[in-house]
Amino acid sequence: MGLSHIDLAERFCLSEGTINNIIISWINYLYLVLGSLNIWPCRDIIIEHSSREFLDQYPNNLVIIDTTELKVQVPSALQKHSESYSSYKSHTTLNGLLGVDPNGGIMFVSQLFEGSISDKQIVSRLGFLEVLKQKLLVGEILKGDGIVPDKGFEIGKELGNLGLQLNIQPFLKNKVGFNEYDVIKAQTIARHRINVERAICKIRRFRIFNSIIPISMFGIINQIWTVACLLSNFQNSVLNAEMTE
Predict the structure, then answer these.
(1) Is the dihedral of CA 170, 96, 42, 101 positive or negative?
(2) Domain assignments of the chain as residue spans, ordered by start
(3) Least confident of 81-95, 168-182, 203-217
(4) Residues 6 or more apart from 51 whose CB is under 8 A from it?
(5) Please, which residues bridge with residue 95 across strands?
(6) Quick one: pLDDT at residue 174?
(7) How is the chain split among helix, strand and coil, in percent rounded to 5?
(8) Which of 105, 113, 119, 163 meets the CB 3.0–4.6 Å disulfide criterion with 152?
(9) Helix locations, 49-162, DSSP H
(10) 3-state secondary structure string across 15-71
């Protein structure tokens, strides 16, 4: 229902402080319970449930990644303001990385980081590359498997060192225009990347992410973010929902 603390306090004849304590307790509990779940499916399961079109075009692509930014209250400290300012959003933000399977199911959730961080930095500093190393060791992904990111993720070298492929939309660079192959590749990747954008939309449907997050919530915002991401896996698949960001 997305009710405010004031509304809940009125409905249950409790103080706002009590409502806040109850919510924090449940958020921390859900963070521990849901955080203990293994949300990264086995390689065979990912492939088994991927669409035929996806498998025909990218048979070894297992993860689609993207970041999303949450607007936060402007910190009073100049250094914190600078660290959290996002030139893309023209606002102070927290940045989180998500990884989804080809059907849009969330299989990786990072902690939140200051909005000034680049996409490349967020991949290396928030544990995604380390997760890939671990998955390679236990055989849950194999060398030659691919990752589909947005254009800002210049991590081809890092993935190459792990024996993985980077399937990214082509850049113009010094070209006058795209050739036919590049156009088809860009359209194909964009069509498959829509599922990570839909997954982000599902998370943003939680009311707390529709407004500026106050500094007073910084102590628990990572738990709220993680719980919201994991709960979205229990909702309808993005393939069955028509959503726009």
Answers:
(1) negative
(2) 1-36, 40-240
(3) 168-182
(4) 102, 103
(5) 69, 113
(6) 63
(7) 50, 15, 35
(8) 119
(9) 52-57, 78-84, 119-125, 128-138, 156-162
(10) CHHHHHHHHHHHHHHHHHHHHCCCCCCCHHHHHHCCCHHHHHHCCCEEEEEEEEEEE
Give the pLDDT band of residue 49 (cuts 50, 70, 90). confident
Count of Cβ atoms closer than 10 Å to residue 87 Cβ: 8
- 72-78 contacts, C-beta under 8 A, 24 or more apart: 72/115, 72/212, 72/213, 72/214, 72/215, 72/218, 73/212, 73/213, 73/214, 73/215, 75/215
d(C-alpha 125, C-alpha 27), whole Å? 25
Mode of pairing for the β-strands spanning 146-148 and 165-166: parallel
- Domain boundaries 40-240, corresponding CATH code: 3.30.420.10
Q: Are residues 100 and 64 in contact, defined by beta-carbon separation less than 8 angstroms?
A: yes
Token digits of residue 73 = 């209250």
Q: Is the pLDDT of residue 97 over 80?
A: yes
Residue 209 burial by Cβ neighbours in a 10 Å radius (0-12, 13-18, 19+): middle
For the record, the structure tokens of 37 come out as 């779940």
164 burial type by CB count under 10 A (0-12 exposed, 13-18 middle, 19+ buried): buried
Quote the pLDDT of residue 244. Answer: 43
- Looking at per-residue pLDDT, the higher value among 46 and 81 belongs to 46
As beta bridge partners, residue 213 has 72
Question: Which segment, 16-20, 207-211, 222-226, is predicted with the most confidence on average?
Answer: 222-226
Whether pLDDT at 245 is above 50: no
